[in-house]
């Protein structure tokens, strides 16, 4: 659980000042009791990782900024590369809210139905707006897929920073990273659905290949830096960190695809067991 420092509390207050509605409305939007939000702001309770993630998502900032004051601060997870297309300008709450609403709807529809089954009109209907409004923010359907991938990467990064920031032991952190990659029902399974479709489209679209490569490199580097830290702490074997990362990420990908596609005998529980066994057998120093 995160330490609620004065700087973190101040940045959340800054977010609240820019929010177009009341503090109570903000608390309800992030699914937090208003009294708990007040206590967190005064330092009598801590924000949970999930709360920090929701604050970042609703306000359009990153968890890294909330905790460390910069989007690209060096932290427990490798930061995503900044996008040339980043939506509305910061500070424009109305525009940012509409953009995020459209992106949320598109992300959920693509995860649930598949990229080729989602039309611009479907997104417009889900948002209660017009197709012209969707096109204003996303000129074409390919732009929607591109931005849903960027969104998934940002969600994963925010969640990793929020969950791992206070874990100093590299062994514990690596096991938590494994847990955060399991396609459990809900958000994580939806993220896996997005990735599965991006892999398919990337095989045919060179432009998407570049974005996919940049995004995957972030995940790869997060694992690699955790393994290197564990080696420095003396808890992991001295086997080449890059080779261990390649093998572990390949295991995560292969097992995740098998679970997601319903291969008999493949379950989240078995995936967890296989990955933890690999970490204990091949990475942990004995």
From TrEMBL:
<dbReference type="InterPro" id="IPR009057">
    <property type="entry name" value="Homeodomain-like_sf"/>
</dbReference>
<keyword id="KW-0678">Repressor</keyword>
<feature type="compositionally biased region" description="Low complexity">
    <location>
        <begin position="77"/>
        <end position="90"/>
    </location>
</feature>
<feature type="region of interest" description="Disordered">
    <location>
        <begin position="76"/>
        <end position="96"/>
    </location>
</feature>
<feature type="domain" description="HTH tetR-type">
    <location>
        <begin position="96"/>
        <end position="156"/>
    </location>
</feature>
<protein>
    <submittedName>
        <fullName>TetR family transcriptional regulator C-terminal domain-containing protein</fullName>
    </submittedName>
</protein>
<dbReference type="Pfam" id="PF00440">
    <property type="entry name" value="TetR_N"/>
</dbReference>
<keyword id="KW-0238">DNA-binding</keyword>
<feature type="domain" description="HTH cro/C1-type">
    <location>
        <begin position="22"/>
        <end position="66"/>
    </location>
</feature>
<keyword id="KW-0805">Transcription regulation</keyword>
<dbReference type="InterPro" id="IPR050109">
    <property type="entry name" value="HTH-type_TetR-like_transc_reg"/>
</dbReference>
<dbReference type="InterPro" id="IPR039538">
    <property type="entry name" value="BetI_C"/>
</dbReference>
<keyword id="KW-0804">Transcription</keyword>
<dbReference type="InterPro" id="IPR001647">
    <property type="entry name" value="HTH_TetR"/>
</dbReference>
<dbReference type="InterPro" id="IPR001387">
    <property type="entry name" value="Cro/C1-type_HTH"/>
</dbReference>
<dbReference type="Pfam" id="PF13977">
    <property type="entry name" value="TetR_C_6"/>
</dbReference>
<dbReference type="InterPro" id="IPR010982">
    <property type="entry name" value="Lambda_DNA-bd_dom_sf"/>
</dbReference>
<dbReference type="InterPro" id="IPR036271">
    <property type="entry name" value="Tet_transcr_reg_TetR-rel_C_sf"/>
</dbReference>
<feature type="DNA-binding region" description="H-T-H motif">
    <location>
        <begin position="119"/>
        <end position="138"/>
    </location>
</feature>
């Amino acid at each position: 659980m995160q330490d609620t420092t004065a700087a973190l509390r101040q940045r959340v207050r800054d977010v609240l000042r820019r929010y177009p509605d009341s503090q109570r409305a903000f608390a309800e939007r992030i699914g937090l009791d208003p009294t708990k939000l007040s206590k967190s702001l005064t330092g009598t309770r801590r924000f949970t990782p999930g709360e920090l993630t929701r604050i970042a998502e609703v306000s359009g900032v990153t968890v890294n900024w909330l905790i460390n004051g910069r989007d690209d601060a060096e932290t427990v997870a490798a930061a995503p590369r900044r996008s040339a297309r980043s939506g509305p300008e910061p500070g424009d709450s109305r525009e940012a809210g509409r953009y995020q609403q459209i992106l949320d709807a598109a992300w959920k529809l693509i995860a649930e139905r598949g990229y080729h089954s989602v039309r611009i009109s479907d997104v417009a209907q889900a948002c209660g707006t017009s197709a012209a409004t969707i096109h204003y923010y996303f000129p074409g359907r390919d732009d929607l897929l591109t931005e849903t991938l960027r969104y998934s990467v940002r969600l994963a990064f925010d969640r990793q920073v929020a969950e791992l920031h206070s874990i100093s032991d590299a062994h514990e952190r690596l096991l938590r990273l494994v847990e955060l990659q399991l396609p459990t029902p809900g958000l994580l399974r939806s993220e896996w659905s997005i990735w599965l479709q991006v892999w398919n489209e990337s095989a045919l679209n060179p432009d998407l290949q570049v974005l996919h490569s940049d995004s995957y490199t972030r995940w790869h580097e997060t694992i690699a830096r955790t393994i290197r830290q564990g080696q420095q702490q003396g808890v992991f074997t001295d086997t080449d960190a890059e080779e261990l990362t390649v093998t572990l990420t390949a295991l995560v990908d292969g097992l995740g695809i098998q679970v997601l596609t319903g291969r008999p005998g493949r379950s989240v529980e078995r995936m967890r067991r296989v990955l933890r066994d690999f970490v204990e057998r091949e990475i942990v120093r004995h």
